[in-house]
Design goal:
Layout: H1 3-9, H2 25-46, H3 54-64, E1 67-68, H4 69-76, H5 80-92, E2 96-101, E3 104-112, H6 117-134, H7 140-161
Antiparallel strand pairs: 1-3, 2-3
Length: about 170
Protein backbone atom coordinates (compact mmCIF):
# COMPACT_ATOMS: atom_id res chain seq x y z
CA UNK A 1 0.00 0.00 0.00
CA UNK A 2 1.29 3.44 -0.88
CA UNK A 3 1.81 5.48 2.31
CA UNK A 4 1.07 8.78 0.53
CA UNK A 5 -2.28 7.42 -0.64
CA UNK A 6 -3.21 6.08 2.78
CA UNK A 7 -2.21 9.34 4.47
CA UNK A 8 -4.39 11.32 2.08
CA UNK A 9 -7.32 8.97 2.56
CA UNK A 10 -7.14 9.46 6.34
CA UNK A 11 -7.49 13.27 6.14
CA UNK A 12 -11.11 14.04 7.00
CA UNK A 13 -13.08 16.79 5.30
CA UNK A 14 -13.39 19.57 7.85
CA UNK A 15 -14.34 23.20 8.05
CA UNK A 16 -11.12 23.89 9.92
CA UNK A 17 -9.25 27.05 9.06
CA UNK A 18 -5.93 26.79 7.27
CA UNK A 19 -3.11 26.98 9.81
CA UNK A 20 -1.98 30.41 8.64
CA UNK A 21 -5.52 31.79 9.08
CA UNK A 22 -5.99 30.64 12.68
CA UNK A 23 -5.20 34.13 13.93
CA UNK A 24 -7.75 35.73 11.60
CA UNK A 25 -10.93 33.69 11.30
CA UNK A 26 -13.08 36.74 10.50
CA UNK A 27 -10.64 37.96 7.87
CA UNK A 28 -10.63 34.48 6.35
CA UNK A 29 -14.44 34.42 6.30
CA UNK A 30 -14.65 37.91 4.75
CA UNK A 31 -12.15 36.87 2.09
CA UNK A 32 -14.13 33.75 1.22
CA UNK A 33 -17.44 35.63 1.16
CA UNK A 34 -15.99 38.43 -1.00
CA UNK A 35 -14.63 35.88 -3.48
CA UNK A 36 -17.95 34.04 -3.73
CA UNK A 37 -19.89 37.32 -3.99
CA UNK A 38 -17.69 38.44 -6.89
CA UNK A 39 -18.19 35.08 -8.64
CA UNK A 40 -21.99 35.33 -8.22
CA UNK A 41 -21.95 38.94 -9.45
CA UNK A 42 -19.83 37.90 -12.43
CA UNK A 43 -22.37 35.29 -13.45
CA UNK A 44 -25.20 37.83 -13.36
CA UNK A 45 -23.20 40.50 -15.16
CA UNK A 46 -22.02 38.14 -17.88
CA UNK A 47 -25.62 37.92 -19.07
CA UNK A 48 -25.56 41.70 -19.49
CA UNK A 49 -22.29 41.69 -21.41
CA UNK A 50 -20.36 43.18 -18.49
CA UNK A 51 -17.31 42.10 -16.55
CA UNK A 52 -17.21 42.48 -12.74
CA UNK A 53 -16.27 46.03 -11.87
CA UNK A 54 -17.67 47.58 -15.03
CA UNK A 55 -21.06 47.92 -13.36
CA UNK A 56 -19.46 49.97 -10.57
CA UNK A 57 -17.94 52.30 -13.13
CA UNK A 58 -21.31 52.64 -14.86
CA UNK A 59 -23.07 53.28 -11.53
CA UNK A 60 -20.65 56.14 -10.92
CA UNK A 61 -21.36 57.63 -14.33
CA UNK A 62 -25.13 57.24 -14.03
CA UNK A 63 -25.11 58.99 -10.67
CA UNK A 64 -22.55 61.72 -11.36
CA UNK A 65 -22.96 62.53 -15.02
CA UNK A 66 -19.86 63.32 -17.08
CA UNK A 67 -16.63 63.13 -15.07
CA UNK A 68 -12.96 63.32 -15.85
CA UNK A 69 -11.30 59.97 -16.42
CA UNK A 70 -8.80 60.87 -13.68
CA UNK A 71 -11.72 61.33 -11.26
CA UNK A 72 -13.09 57.89 -12.15
CA UNK A 73 -9.67 56.38 -11.46
CA UNK A 74 -9.56 58.12 -8.06
CA UNK A 75 -13.15 57.30 -7.11
CA UNK A 76 -12.96 53.65 -8.14
CA UNK A 77 -9.48 53.35 -6.61
CA UNK A 78 -8.24 51.33 -9.56
CA UNK A 79 -5.07 51.32 -11.62
CA UNK A 80 -5.30 53.79 -14.54
CA UNK A 81 -4.64 51.02 -17.07
CA UNK A 82 -7.53 48.98 -15.62
CA UNK A 83 -9.95 51.91 -15.96
CA UNK A 84 -8.70 52.61 -19.48
CA UNK A 85 -9.34 48.99 -20.50
CA UNK A 86 -12.79 49.05 -18.89
CA UNK A 87 -13.65 52.27 -20.72
CA UNK A 88 -12.41 50.88 -24.04
CA UNK A 89 -14.70 47.85 -23.69
CA UNK A 90 -17.66 49.95 -22.55
CA UNK A 91 -17.07 52.39 -25.40
CA UNK A 92 -17.01 49.52 -27.93
CA UNK A 93 -20.39 48.34 -26.64
CA UNK A 94 -21.83 51.87 -26.83
CA UNK A 95 -22.33 52.36 -23.09
CA UNK A 96 -19.85 55.21 -22.57
CA UNK A 97 -18.47 58.10 -24.58
CA UNK A 98 -15.15 59.85 -24.03
CA UNK A 99 -14.40 63.36 -25.21
CA UNK A 100 -11.94 66.16 -24.43
CA UNK A 101 -12.86 68.28 -21.41
CA UNK A 102 -13.81 71.75 -22.75
CA UNK A 103 -12.26 73.34 -19.64
CA UNK A 104 -8.96 71.46 -19.99
CA UNK A 105 -8.14 69.92 -23.37
CA UNK A 106 -5.54 67.67 -21.72
CA UNK A 107 -8.26 65.98 -19.63
CA UNK A 108 -10.82 63.46 -20.88
CA UNK A 109 -14.50 63.53 -19.88
CA UNK A 110 -16.35 60.24 -19.66
CA UNK A 111 -20.13 59.97 -19.75
CA UNK A 112 -22.79 57.29 -19.93
CA UNK A 113 -24.62 57.21 -23.25
CA UNK A 114 -28.37 57.28 -23.75
CA UNK A 115 -28.00 53.69 -24.96
CA UNK A 116 -26.81 52.69 -21.48
CA UNK A 117 -30.24 53.46 -19.96
CA UNK A 118 -31.43 49.88 -20.59
CA UNK A 119 -28.22 48.64 -19.00
CA UNK A 120 -28.94 50.81 -15.96
CA UNK A 121 -32.19 48.98 -15.28
CA UNK A 122 -30.60 45.58 -15.93
CA UNK A 123 -27.70 46.30 -13.56
CA UNK A 124 -30.11 47.46 -10.85
CA UNK A 125 -32.13 44.28 -11.29
CA UNK A 126 -28.98 42.12 -11.23
CA UNK A 127 -27.78 43.76 -8.00
CA UNK A 128 -31.22 43.29 -6.44
CA UNK A 129 -31.11 39.63 -7.41
CA UNK A 130 -27.58 39.31 -6.01
CA UNK A 131 -28.73 40.97 -2.78
CA UNK A 132 -31.60 38.53 -2.35
CA UNK A 133 -29.41 35.53 -3.16
CA UNK A 134 -26.68 36.75 -0.80
CA UNK A 135 -29.03 37.40 2.11
CA UNK A 136 -31.44 34.50 1.62
CA UNK A 137 -32.53 33.10 4.96
CA UNK A 138 -31.72 36.26 6.91
CA UNK A 139 -34.55 38.07 8.64
CA UNK A 140 -34.99 41.82 8.18
CA UNK A 141 -33.39 42.65 11.54
CA UNK A 142 -30.46 40.34 10.75
CA UNK A 143 -29.94 42.09 7.41
CA UNK A 144 -29.97 45.45 9.17
CA UNK A 145 -27.48 44.21 11.76
CA UNK A 146 -25.20 42.72 9.10
CA UNK A 147 -25.22 46.02 7.21
CA UNK A 148 -24.40 47.90 10.43
CA UNK A 149 -21.54 45.55 11.29
CA UNK A 150 -20.11 45.61 7.78
CA UNK A 151 -20.17 49.43 7.87
CA UNK A 152 -18.06 49.29 11.04
CA UNK A 153 -15.64 46.84 9.42
CA UNK A 154 -15.45 49.09 6.36
CA UNK A 155 -14.73 52.13 8.55
CA UNK A 156 -11.92 50.22 10.28
CA UNK A 157 -10.41 49.23 6.95
CA UNK A 158 -10.77 52.76 5.59
CA UNK A 159 -8.78 54.11 8.54
CA UNK A 160 -6.15 51.44 8.08
CA UNK A 161 -5.77 52.07 4.35
CA UNK A 162 -6.17 55.86 4.68
CA UNK A 163 -8.79 56.14 1.99
CA UNK A 164 -12.15 54.84 0.99
CA UNK A 165 -13.95 54.54 -2.29
CA UNK A 166 -17.26 56.32 -2.56
CA UNK A 167 -20.16 54.48 -0.94
CA UNK A 168 -23.41 53.84 -2.65
CA UNK A 169 -25.14 51.74 -5.22
CA UNK A 170 -28.59 50.85 -6.34
CA UNK A 171 -31.32 50.14 -3.87
CA UNK A 172 -34.01 47.54 -4.40
Amino acid sequence: MNTATSATAEVPCTDALPGAALGGPVSHAVSRVARLHRIAAGKLLKGLGLYPGQELLMMQLWDSGPVRQSELIRTLDLDPSTVTKMLQRLEQTGHVRRRPDPDDRRAVLVEATAESCALHTAVRDAWCSLEEHTLAGLESDERTELTRLLAKVEANLCQETQGCPERGGPTC
